[in-house]
Design goal:
It is built from 5 helices and 4 strands, in the order ααβαβαβαβ. It is of the alpha+beta class and about 160 residues long. It has one domain (about 5-155): NADH Oxidase (3-Layer(aba) Sandwich). The structure holds flavin mononucleotide. Flavin mononucleotide binds near residues 12, 111 and 112. Pfam families: Nitroreductase. This is Nitroreductase. InterPro entries: NAD(P)H_nitroreductase (IPR052530), Nitroreductase (IPR029479), Nitroreductase-like (IPR000415), YdjA-like (IPR026021). Belongs to the nitroreductase family.
Length: about 160
Amino acid sequence: MNVLDAILTRRNVKQFKPDPVPRDKVQEWLHAASFAPNHRMTQPWEILWIGPETRAQIPHKNNFGGAPTLLAVLSTPAHTSVDRDEHYAAVSCFLQNFMLAAHAEGVGTGWSSAGLSEKVRHILGVQPGYEVVGIIPVGYPEAEPAPKERAPIVTKIKDLP
Ligand SMILES: Cc1cc2nc3c(=O)[nH]c(=O)nc-3n(C[C@H](O)[C@H](O)[C@H](O)COP(=O)(O)O)c2cc1C
């Protein structure tokens, strides 16, 4: 699958098959993700591989669609708000890389904001200063969600003199 196809066909998957995804494959996609742009090579991402005991404590309406693998992706602490924003941006690039790499090999991902809650931060043992950018279920999709329509990009482009 070429990059453009991967970008255009990736979906936010909500329901997964129980079949496990080999850990070394997930690690391979995380490695690829780490080639994301990041200012001054801060590499501001950390990954929590969520095991069953921890997962059972996280409140979520459908247990992350039954995904066999669940990750939390964190952004590391920063001294200034600019650095904090840059870390968050870099981790978002990391996540997109990861999702595309998985998708290109037939594995779906989702993105949950559940890690924004203090309760979930506590369950995950997230230290002060870290941001939980996403909780990411990973697995073979049970169904491919339909594409969500986007606004024509020309409506988002402003020409400057
Ligand atoms: C920062 C961020 C937070 C998100 N949080 C959630 C979430 O909590 N629950 C959810 O169902 N989807 C979440 N999503 C996924 C979006 O809902 C999804 O990407 C969007 O509906 C477009 O669908 P698509 O990715 O399949 O094109 C999040 C996406 C981003 C970038």
